Amino acid sequence: MEKIDLVYMAVSALILLYIFWCFIEPFFLIRDKAVLKKSPKDNSPVENLKIKRLPMLPIGDKEEADFRYVFFSDTHAEWCPVSSKRICESIRRAQAKAPLDAVIFGGDMSSYKQGASRGFKYLNAISKCCKELDIPFYGVSGNHDVHVSNIPETAGFVSLDDTHITVRSRTSGASAILAGLSDTGRKNRVWHKMPALDSNDPVILVVHDPDALLHFEPQTRPDYMLSGHLHGGQMKFPFRIEFCVLRRHDKLPNMGAVQGVYNIGGTTVFISRGLGCGVMPFRFLSMPEVTVVEIKL
Ligand SMILES: [Fe+2]
Known about the structure:
Elements: H1 3-24, E1 30-37, E2 51-54, E3 67-72, H2 84-97, E4 102-105, H3 116-133, E5 137-139, H4 151-155, E6 158-159, E7 163-168, E8 175-181, E9 203-207, E10 224-227, H5 241-246, H6 251-255, E11 260-264, E12 267-271, E13 289-296
Parallel strand pairs: 1-13, 3-4, 4-5, 5-6, 8-9, 9-10, 10-12
Antiparallel strand pairs: 2-11, 3-13, 7-8, 11-12
Helix pairs in contact: 2-3
Fe (ii) ion binds next to loops.
């Protein structure tokens, strides 16, 4: 066989393997854990914002968490090979290890209006599971959710959109504010300010798009933030093409925050890779993720 034929065959095999893997990867599910500790306050303006990657699990940390959540985001129900059954199983496993304070959904139920019924079915199954275990189920809207009305009521979760509740730690008795912000969609996007909170308690903010943090007055930044939206890039390409070209409007990824835990301007942020696939039904080096998020005040 000619040398050129061998090269041709090897390249073809690699391309086929790549396509095969891109199709298979969305079926995997990473069940991980993130421990969020308070970051030192930093009121730097956005132009001087410092982003520091933090470990998901701080080493040598033995204190009990104040709040324990299961967080998942971006179901994009049209193509979400991770079934709701597997998410319910993750919730049950987490609850069996230690009591959960809530299950939280980070938005983007379906990519399009046509996928809403699948999305409702998916979230209804999780709602049912939360009810059986007596765990509150909260959520916020994502940029794709603006096309569907009454999502929280139909899907069976309590909306945190532009509202907040006071929560109390079952371990230390300390209180905190669990707040949420709605997403107004990619077109006609309005970046909300942080709501005025009549309390000095630490704030845990749930917001779909982590770029929201760049639009708050520095002194109003929350202590903790849970987000999704970025899908970890969904398809990783060389030279970060997925963010420089395909998601060039998303600012934080281009500043270095894509997935995992960060200190961003004094806020401890967790960004989930989410579960489903938006637009293209593929993932590459960005496996779906459901996370136990433990918060230490
Ligand atoms: Fe999404």
